[in-house]
Design goal:
This protein is an all-alpha fold. Helix content is about 80%, strand content about 0%.
């Protein structure tokens, strides 16, 4: 697939954010790193936050949405759902440090936090829906209410895995996923 100038801008911003953080990835640096002009950048994006959102969508939201959509008709146990989500972001193309940098940028910029939160709502809704289907199939009462809580726990385990993978040199992803999946399945009564 041929890359477009927009793709080049997003790729340059991704590299800058991963290495320097959201705040340091200025429009001027993105222009220089992408080999673009200011006019080209502003043709594709209204603001730096729009570029950061494109980075977040490509790095986290789209892989998660695609993985969840591919298994939409399956009633996956929470542990299997966690593994599915982890596989979507740990396939070798994503550096968890990028996600940590995006979180840090969202913490510094409330508008960016709202934009990223809105994007992640779709992921959370899909996760909750899949878990509710699983819990209903297991005969669990108040499957929707329980699914909401378990979805929050599942996403929390994903976030914890990404943060620890970035910060801890000896972090064992497989051991973490094994323990987290067991805990989530026990929470669901699986």
């Amino acid at each position: 697939m041929r890359s477009t100038k927009r793709d080049e801008i997003v790729a340059a911003a991704t590299d800058l954010i991963r290495s320097d953080g959201v705040r340091a990835a200025s429009i001027a640096k993105i222009i220089a790193a992408s080999g673009s002009s200011a006019g080209s950048v502003y043709h594709h994006f209204e603001s730096k936050n729009d570029i950061v959102l494109a980075v977040a969508r490509g790095a986290l939201v789209e892989p998660l949405e695609a993985a969840l959509a591919a298994h939409e008709d399956e009633a996956l146990a929470p542990g299997a759902l966690l593994r599915l989500m982890a596989g979507a972001v740990l396939d070798g193309t994503l550096h968890s440090s990028l996600i940590v940098q995006l979180w840090a940028g969202a913490a510094d910029e409330p508008q960016l936090a709202l934009i990223i939160r809105d994007q992640m709502e779709g992921v959370r809704a899909r996760t909750t829906g899949g878990l509710a289907a699983y819990l209903r199939a297991q005969g669990v009462e108040d499957a929707e209410g329980r699914a909401t809580i378990i979805a929050m726990l599942t996403m929390g385990q994903m976030m914890g895995m990404l943060a620890q993978r970035t910060l801890l040199a000896e972090f064992d992803v497989e051991a973490y996923l094994d323990s987290a999946a067991t805990m989530l399945d026990a929470t669901a009564g699986a």
